[in-house]
Write a structure and sequence with these properties.
The protein is an alpha+beta fold. The chain has helices at residues 2-22, 50-53, 55-60, 233-246, 270-273, 294-338, 350-360, 371-379, 388-398, 408-417, 419-435, and strands spanning 62-73, 90-104, 107-115, 120-129, 137-144, 165-168, 173-180, 186-194, 201-211, 217-230, 368-369, 406-407.
């Protein structure tokens, strides 16, 4: 039985250790929930792709043509205010806008050609989703130049307060806001809204606010336009080329709309993309180390205590069994020195047992064996020495009623338990006699 008990203990320890290793992972039956279950920023399975994060992005993607009016103050186009009411110096200028908005995974490409007053101005914007995974977009670079050869200007790629960002409002609208740098510093806002169910028509309004040296904020630019979707890229290109002709745009002002990234310095390098692109940069939102649930910790403590008690109990039982084997063996050897029974102890007559009992009870002859009398018996002869602890256990095993003395019935009962040890002692004694 002892090997089986040891195997069971080993199995329990193995199960507890296995459970402890599993508990290192969050979201397990023994651990706290993963943050990613309630906070999408920590969910590694949540998509970084633009169209997966907000429905509006898929609806706003494509080729578009827009016509509208921009309002500026000709007294100072960068700093003079453009109020909502008619004011001297504020003029409205018609313009045509061709925009290609393309999403590629987590990346956002905007290429626009703005035709105003017989001049075409290219505008570029490159952005990505963020590690926030909330559908917002951050612009890595925004360019607006009269010629493609002009040196590009960069938006702050660190995601700071001067970075232009776009936010989904609902399935129809997006809102863009951010600080601008250049001839005038200020805030740019833009609202783009679908006007029909299929989002083939949109309305777009853009305002720029600047702050003067006195801290006064004024709107210095305003534009509005209505936008219509164009079915294919080729139709979009042909519409642009046709507009060049219809507006008598000079040949040296015409820009090929087909491949803006063919011009060096316009499109970000892969290294630049990866300063903000969540698909190739490390998220600051890493799942922390898991913790075992409080109830589980208490359970492990209780289980550990129970296991310890079980181990100690089994060890105690083994030691008690070994001790019992020792004192029965020594007692049986001592009996074998004084009784010559050819069979087993169980075949001894009551008279023989009574005679042996009297032999041990040699001092007082009161029908009971005292502890001293039993000690004198087992410590004499050639059976071997019994230490005091084993003797105390022997006496306790014989003295069933714990009276402090062993009567004849208790003596007979214990003798019956020593059957196997007595037989082994007789065999051993016979071997010794034969050798001698």
């Amino acid at each position: 039985n002892t090997p089986k008990k040891m195997e069971m203990m080993q199995l329990i320890v193995l199960l507890l250790l296995t459970s402890g290793c599993y508990a290192l992972r969050c979201g397990g039956p023994l651990t706290t929930a993963c943050l990613g279950e309630t906070d999408i920023r920590y969910d590694p399975e949540a998509s970084n792709n633009i169209v997966d994060q907000a429905e509006v992005w898929g609806r706003h993607e494509g080729y578009f043509r827009g016509e509208g009016q921009l309002r500026v103050n000709i007294n100072d186009i960068f700093n003079a205010p453009v109020p909502a009411t008619e004011t001297e110096g504020v003029i409205s200028v018609p313009f045509i806008d061709f925009t290609n908005k393309t999403f590629d995974g987590s990346r956002y490409y905007v290429y626009s050609l703005i035709i105003v007053s017989a001049q075409v101005t290219p505008r570029f914007a490159f952005g990505t989703t963020t590690h926030e995974k909330d559908g917002s977009l951050i612009f890595l670079r925004v360019l607006s130049n009269t010629t493609l050869a002009a040196a590009p200007s960069f938006a702050n790629p660190s995601g700071g307060s001067d970075t232009l960002r776009s936010y989904p409002v609902d399935r129809n609208a997006e809102y863009i806001s951010g600080n601008i740098v250049g001839a005038a510093n200020g805030l740019s806002t833009l609202l783009r809204v679908c006007l029909d169910q299929k989002c083939n028509f949109l309305h777009e309004s853009n305002d720029v606010f600047t702050t003067d040296s006195n801290g006064t904020v004024a709107r210095t630019y305003s534009s509005e336009m209505t936008v219509q979707r164009i079915a294919t890229g080729e139709e979009w290109v042909q519409d642009i080329l046709g507009t060049y002709n219809s507006t008598n745009l000079p040949a040296d002002q015409r820009i090929d709309p087909r491949d803006p990234c063919s011009v060096p310095g316009v499109c970000p390098t892969e290294e630049e993309w990866c300063t903000v692109d969540p698909n190739c940069s490390v998220s600051p939102y890493q799942e922390p180390s898991a913790h075992v649930r409080g109830g589980v910790v208490a359970g492990f403590v209780v289980a550990g205590i129970v296991l310890l008690v079980l181990v100690l109990y089994v060890i105690h039982r083994v030691l008690v069994a070994q001790q019992a084997k020792r004192y029965r063996t020594l007692f049986a050897k001592r009996i074998a020195d004084t009784i010559d029974v050819r069979g087993s102890l169980r075949s001894m007559s009551p008279e023989a047992l009574a005679e042996e009992f009297k032999r041990i009870d040699k001092d007082v002859q009161d029908g009971k064996l005292s502890k001293d009398e039993l000690w004198d018996f087992v410590s004499s002869g050639k059976a071997g020495e019994m230490d005091q602890k084993d003797f105390d256990a022997l006496f306790a095993a014989i003295d069933l009623d714990k009276s402090g003395a062993v009567d004849f019935l208790e003596f007979c009962a214990f003798m019956g338990k020593c059957h196997d040890e007595y037989r082994a002692a007789r065999v051993d004694r016979g071997s010794i006699v034969a050798r001698s």
